[in-house]
Amino acid sequence: MGEYLAPYHDTEWGAFTMDDRAHFEHLSLEGFQSGLSWTTILKKRGHLNRIFADFDPAAVAEFDENSVEKILQDPGGIRNRRKVNSVLNNARRVLEIQEREGSFGGFLFEAFGGKVVVNRFTKDSEIPPHTEKSTRLAKILKKEGFSFVGPTTVYAHLQSMGFVNDHLTSCFRRQMIIDALTVPWTET
Fold first, then answer.
1. What are phi and psi of 172, to 5 degrees?
2. What is the CB neighbour count within 10 angstroms for residue 58?
3. Which residue pairs from 148-155 have beta carbons closer than 8 angstroms and sit at least 24 positions apart in sequence?
4. Which of 24, 40, 88, 170 is deepest in the core (most CB within 10 A)?
């Protein structure tokens, strides 16, 4: 699985969280991943955390055009202006939702349906790139003003944050994550 993917899978991917900073980080990373490999993003993750203030939405929301230019010149980052501007825009949207709803993670979970979905896939080829729920949530996020949040990006976010458990039935992490859930869940 590789030096970056295996540790991410074995310790982080699919673990349920409502942490707003983690949600903002992962939504940003998923947006950066568009057109790139997830391995590339994981390799750059530490550096991206440094140049984006540890993905603190309040700090990133204060970035200006000078900040964007510095980021675009940084060889360790993702030098795509649309993606960088998207992170700044999305930080501001997260703050708006926190102000209105109290929690970005809570807002996403309720908009998703308030239950973790545990799938029973036996092979990777069964895992869809997006679902009806990710398509609906992408539309909600776009209506809120978010960018780089298409159905596939949103589905990857739902998987990474544990709203969807797509660990294969043979995977040791699947049951560990189920056992750790303290919120409602349903198996499909």
1. -60, -25
2. 14
3. 148/30, 148/31, 148/34, 148/82, 148/83, 148/86, 148/90, 149/27, 149/31, 149/90, 153/27, 153/30, 153/31, 153/33, 153/34, 154/30, 154/130, 155/128, 155/129, 155/130, 155/131
4. 24
pLDDT of residue 2: 82
CATH of domain 14-187: 1.10.340.30
CA 114 vs CA 30, 63, 108, 109, 139: distances in Å: 22, 33, 9, 5, 17
Catalytic residue among 38, 96, 144, 185: 38
Q: One of 13, 25, 30, 155 is an active-site residue; which one?
A: 30
Mean pLDDT by 10 residues, the chain (188 residues): 91 97 98 94 97 98 97 96 98 98 98 97 98 98 97 98 98 97 94
Nearest to 105 by CA among 24, 29, 15, 178: 24
To the query of whether residue 12 is one of the catalytic residues in this protein, the response is no
The tokens for 44 are: 């750059």
38 is catalytic: yes
Catalytic, out of 4, 8, 96, 101? 8
Distance in Å from the first CA to the final CA of the chain: 26
